[in-house]
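Fresh eyes needed here. Have a critical look at this protein's tokenised backbone.
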Amino acid sequence: MVRELVRALHVSEKAFYLLLFAVLVVVSLAAGVALRRIIHYWTAKFQNKWGEYIFAFLEALPVPLLLLCGFYAGMESLPLSARYEHIASKLILALVLLVISYLPAKFLVLALQRAGERNPAVVRIAQPAAFVIRAGFAVLAIVIFLEDIGIKLTVVWTTLGVGSVAIALALQDTLSNFFSGLYLVADRPVNPGDYIRTDTNQEGYVQRIGWRSTTLLTLGEHLVIIPNSTMAKAVITNLSMPQPRYSCGLPVNVAYGTDPALVEKALLEVVQDALHAQVEGLLPRPEPSVAFLPGFGESAMSFTLNVTLRRFADQYGVQSELRKRIVKKFQVAGIEIPFPTRTLLLQKGLDSD
């Protein structure tokens, strides 16, 4: 019957079997795509539930599995020549390796996504980690496939080993910055938007944490680029964590002989007036306070006015506004702000013998 069909189509028997094999593969591919669409529908239907992860895990399987079945059925049912049978067997091996490498990689990636929903810190490393996982299993599958088809990789591994050492030495700084960037992303000592200060007196808002460097935006609207390896080793003061508000101490000097209670009352009234005027960045809570600190200076009594600011960068504008109000308040209250003075006692020279 097959021979009669071949004669009716006016093609060679070899071309007919190849055509039949191709039809079988196309039908398997079409069935796999259709089944994948069905599984994708159920994946979306079970959104944010465990069913979503189960169907997401199964979603990419129909196409390679049905192709595998199609190739195998063609090999078993059609009288292929030894050459084409060998090619088909290698394709089957490639599909088997694809499925085997896909399963654990997909499971680990989905586990990372699930962990990211519970812990936001994991989300920041999920994308690079997922890439590393997929690349690792893909390389393993390729190595197994090449070994099976007779390509010896001993020389390749030797060359890569020597080359990798040379590359690692040449890119030592780049790799150091790269892994330091991974540390900064995973450990999160700083986040974009935080105002930080390093032990080398570099400070500003964190704009971005890249793979090579971290970018700070200073209050003067300038960018400071710090290598990630330097950031990872630096002592960092995060002025936005654990909360953005900032406690500021404003030093105030008055002349000796001034009543400390009068100074304290005047300073608190200045802050209350500023709060009523809604000076930007000044917060009413925690309540402002005045301390007789650091105390007795060389030419003045020193007080500290403690206020709370919305964030660290607000201190400059708020301090300037409070100082102007303090000058006016002290003028009205008769409180003197002294100039630095020093008294010199001159002793007359002793009579000579």
The chain has three domains: 10-151, 181-238, 246-333. Residues 10-151 form one domain.
